Amino acid sequence: MRPDAVAQAVDAALAAYAKEPGPLLEILHAVQGELGCVPPEAVPLIADGLNLSRAEVHGVISFYHHFRERPPGRVVVQVCRAEACQSMNGDALADAVRQKLGVDFGQTRADGAVSLEAVYCLGNCACAPAMMVDGELRGRVDPARLGDLP
Amino acid sequence: MSVAIRIFVPQDASARSVGADAVAAAIPARHSGIPISVVRTGSRGLYWLEPLIEVETPAGRVAYGPIDGGAPEVHELLDAGLLSGAAHPKRLGDITTHAWLESQQRLTSARLGIVDPADIDDYRAQGGYAGLDAALSMAPADIVRVVSESGLRGRGGAAFPTGIKWQTVHDQSAPQKYIACNADEGDSGTFADRMLMEGDPFSLIEGMTIAGLAVGATRGFIYLRVEYPHAARALARALEAARARGHLGRDVRGSGRDFDISVRLGAGAYICGEETSMLESLEGRRGEVRVRPPLPAIKGLFGQPTVVNNVVTLATVPVILARGAAFYREFGMGKSRGTILLQLAGNVKRGGLVERAFGITVNELVYGYGGGSATGRPVRAVQIGGPLGAYLPESQFDTPLDYEALTQRGALLGHGGVVVFDDRVDMARMARYALEFCAIESCGKCTPCRLGSTRGVEIVDRIVKSANGTRAADLALLDELCDTMEKGSLCGLGGMTPFPVRSAMTHFREDFERS
Ligand SMILES: Cc1cc2nc3c(=O)[nH]c(=O)nc-3n(C[C@H](O)[C@H](O)[C@H](O)COP(=O)(O)O)c2cc1C
Ligand code: SF4
Ligand code: FES
Fold first, then answer.
1. What is the model's pTM?
2. SS3 of A22, please?
3. How many domains would you assign to chain B?
4. Does the model's ipTM exceed the 0.90 cut?
5. Residue A23 in contact with partner chain B when CB distance is under 8 A
6. Which domain covers residue B450, as residue numbers?
7. Is the beta carbon of B308 within 6 A of some atom in ligand 1?
């Protein structure tokens, strides 16, 4: 990632949130929103800006499933693996998506087009099984008819 | 020019997930010369009928659904006379007279699917802000008393009396107090918080404002899970409107009191729904659970007295203030007063939101409302109360859904989610999943939770395989491990994962002894 892009994203996030109480998560969200991830080069910049240690910032990034240290694929596909979706044959959905995308959970395909993630409940449990494609929620998904996926 | 006919299309995330946006997009600005305006509402919660649309006619709203055929179906409906509420196979008529809805007692969710969540005037016209009106004319201690007398208990899971919590914060003297709304809604099978935030966000804002007046807090936070982007947008819009009208911000409605609310996004950690972990996260740290005492009500967010309440709890406060404590406590049974927002999900024919006075049985919910499994196969189990809730076998479906009755059965109501499973469920796998989930989501602070859960997964694997005839010993070991987790965990994640595990072992033993 280009260093000036990282610095710019961090500066903008600090300018927007550093004065708020307890702003670190807000800042990480802003940086990831801009860059697709929170790259390791951003950590010392954020730490300096908030007067925290690098270890503290890194500790927070690593605690939360949502924050990534590397950019994801161009499309992020999330499949719900929680109970209500399991009750509607979510396993078959998970397998079908894995096959169709040719990539496993927690991985990004070699061509960089898509990342596949497991999530635990999207609040769509009455229309299970559910998945999210690039932020767009899909429900009652039929594993045999997955619709457009990268 | 004639007045436009209004068509209501949900913008609820679940309704969108099955095609509501395509329906809205396909509705033209006029049809046969008649102008049409589309109003995006929340969902009424009859999810098997989504996308469900309603058209406003002189005789009232007429519903059609499920409109899952996209644009072609919309055009066909229009040609068939949708705008005059004409007959059609998908016509449902006046949805409020549908038995599924008519039998409900909607207090907290009264406006869901009806009100325009972006329109503060519509909210007011439908009884909104009547609770705040009442609260503004009361002394703070009296607001707290009304909430106490209503019998309201926290709907986030722990069922702690809301009035007592508010009283504690009210009684502290501190430079700053906070209202922290728990909108982390991580339990599988739950979506009531989401529905309210998307479909009637002003009710939550009003409830938080009343809480602020009652305890002397000037600042509120909504800790919203990042998986709910639609709710984030609905809240942002509603907060802006409330501020613009003087319902929030400096000098709320000329009362001389300040109160404002910010939304903070979570980051995909289930444990951050636990209240002390949520406070850590709101302060920008790792979501590690805090040792209690001190209680958040005494030393909470940034060390200040803080009310932590669930979305449903707070969104219920306005109706209590508007209609009185006595009105609210009329509903319910025993020590479970008022109504509960049950969320019926999973393998069920008619899933959705059922708000009823406490006390209906699992049978009434699963068969009466739900109509049995979606697959048409026999129902074998339900899990009540999310991933930390017990599994109940069909033989116990006579259990009433109230806090005490479920406790007696070794179960809990939690946030009110009920997930249905048909006879193909493998309960040993579900027990394994409960332990795996605990391992993935553990904050890492205590050993029984962090390591015990992983160890539990290994034990279940051995039990199922029974490779070297150690099954009986391993079953005993798993039971012991559950004991250790229950007694040696700081919070409910480690402490309550034994509920699903043990209930699966007790009621569905055969699944552990297959091979
Ligand atoms: C592991 C765990 C997860 C929880 N998740 C949530 C949640 O997502 N939402 C919620 O409101 N309460 C959750 N709770 C309960 C909260 O700790 C707390 O009791 C609640 O937010 C208080 O609000 P109430 O009194 O209005 O229910 C959770 C508790 C535990 C132990
Ligand atoms: S029980 Fe688990 S989640 Fe709860 S404090 Fe202990 S380690 Fe953290
Ligand atoms: S369990 Fe999959 S959306 Fe809730």
1. 0.98
2. coil
3. 4
4. yes
5. yes
6. 427-511
7. yes
